[in-house]
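Hello,

I think I submitted the arginine job twice by accident. Can you confirm which output corresponds to this input? Input:
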Amino acid sequence: MKTNASWGGRFSEGPKEAVAAYTESVSYDKNLWQQDIRASKAHARMLARQGILTRSEGETLVEGLDSVAEEIRSGRFEWRPELEDVHMNIEARLTEIVGDVGKRLHTGRSRNDQVGLTFRLFVADCMTQWQDKLSQLVERITDMAQLHVNHILPGCTHLQPAQPISLAHHLLAYAWMFHRDYHRLADTMHRVRTSPLGAAALAGTTYPLDPVSVAEDVGFESIYQNSMDAVSDRDFVLEALFDADLVMTHLSRLCEELILWANPNFGYIRLSDGYSTGSSIMPQKKNPDVAELMRGRTGRVTGSLMGLLTVVKGLPLAYNRDLQEDKEGFMDASHTVVTSLSVMEGMLSEITFNTDRMEAACRKGFLNATEMADYLVSRGIPFRQAHHITGHAVALAEQKGCTLEELPLDELQKLDSHFDDEIYAVLDCHAAVRRRETPGGTGPKSVHDQLDSLRDWLGALKD
Ligand code: ARG
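Support: Only one job matched these inputs. Its output is below.
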């Protein structure tokens, strides 16, 4: 192989074929072509503004980069693996189109700061897409919850029946997780949208660059403070991957519940045929494969995060080629997040809730035991003691094979003289839900407050 045109001056032969194949990144970093061209156009305009290139040279470069973009967009562009990466492929083609002035584009720049800016633009674009999908999912969940403020089901702790809750409240717990994910991304975004261009290879450069104007040109908020940090920092990818992983982790928890709820022993939901699969041997089966795959795919994103943390952990300053390993894991993670959020939104839109099953399930597991204890407290008994008396009532009901509300009053009065007829209204599960109006509680007023906040937020996003 001939030496690489960009850096081959001091080499008498090019890399061995296997080495070229081992080190190239264009097979996947070509996905960054739009961001690379955006960054290069900003760099060329700045060079011209600063008088480092003439105005007409600057214009030629910008127009040439637009032509390259057009070729790539239309599929006419020929990617050449021997040119290593997206940056050198685009620069080489630019020079073919505009002639020698193309060789001036890289003035005052290194691929180290170039790839930094390019990838930051890419990560920011992906994160914006994740945020769009997150807000659509929150809207879907909010719409669903609105219909189920008065439907109840057993709320669990330790996956054991605990207290009755409204279905809306249960669903909204996930809306808030995804709402937090959205804001976590917005926070990370400030650190992603920082331009490293101007750091050059590692030490800054002798040309009178204006890095702030480059940052403004690409729509970023700030620039680096230290050129060595600028070219070796991959915190922005790690943070984005963590945010992505948390989105997947939240999706995975929701998947786990959908899988449980679809099991006929729960029977709380029916997944639509379009979001289920069958078994090749058991004709009766309807499997929640979509939810299972999503739960499983969370592992890929965790893997990408762990992978990059491991890449970065022992690196000395400044740029090291190891950092090229930041891209594939991120791209895979981004694809996983975007497709999972869309598929979850679609799957939820076709779920049918069996609210009768949920209501019936509230009769099992003594979900209203806390109500009995609170009732005794209202009659002046200290909570610890009320807890103990109620425990006896539960044991008695268990022994008789009945519910707490099926225990006759005289039996209850044998346990404690404070019991009277009012206990039976207190034990009603709907009433139990209605009483829980503390902020963020499952009571209908609290749930409506949650719905209102989410609606306000979604409305503000659309404005
Ligand atoms: N393809 C490289 C990357 O993704 C670009 C930077 C290469 N710089 C260098 N000096 N080898 O990290």
